[in-house]
C-alpha cells in the first residue's frame, strides 16, 4: 500500500470568509492577500467569491435601472 503525503493547512478565521461577501472585489483581494500563505486554495475561492458578488450586484443594479 502506498502512503500519500498530506499537507496540513492552517484554518482560516471565519471573519476572513465574510469579508469578500460584504465588500466584493476589494474584500476578495484583501482576504486573498491576508490568507494565501495559510491556504492558497481557500484564498483563491475567496477572491473568486468577491469577484462574483461584485458582478452579481452590478447585474442587479443594471437590471433595476433599465427595466
Largest sheet: none
Mean pLDDT: 93
List the helices and strands in order: HH
Q: Percentage of helical residues?
A: over 70%
**Number of strand elements:** 0
Strand content: under 5%
Brief digest:
Helix content is 73%, strand content 0%. The protein has helices at 14-35, 40-66.
Overview of this protein structure:
The protein has one domain (14-66). Helices cover 73% and strands 0% of the residues. It starts with 13 loop residues before the first helix and ends with a helix. The chain is elongated, with a radius of gyration of 16 Å. It has helices at 14-35, 40-66. By secondary structure, it is mainly α. The chain crosses the membrane at residues 12-33, 45-66. Keywords: Membrane, Transmembrane, Transmembrane helix.
For the structure shown, list the relevant keywords.
0% strand; 2 helices; mainly alpha; transmembrane helix; 67 residues; transmembrane; membrane
Give the topology, please:
Blueprint: H1 14-35, H2 40-66
Helix pairs in contact: 1-2
Amino acid at each position: 500500500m502506498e502512503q500519500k503525503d498530506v499537507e496540513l493547512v492552517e484554518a482560516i478565521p471565519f471573519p476572513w470568509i465574510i469579508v469578500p461577501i460584504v465588500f466584493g472585489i476589494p474584500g476578495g483581494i484583501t482576504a486573498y492577500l491576508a490568507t494565501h500563505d495559510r491556504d492558497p486554495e481557500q484564498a483563491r475561492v475567496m477572491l473568486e467569491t468577491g469577484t462574483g458578488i461584485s458582478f452579481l450586484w452590478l447585474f442587479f443594479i443594471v437590471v433595476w435601472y433599465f427595466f
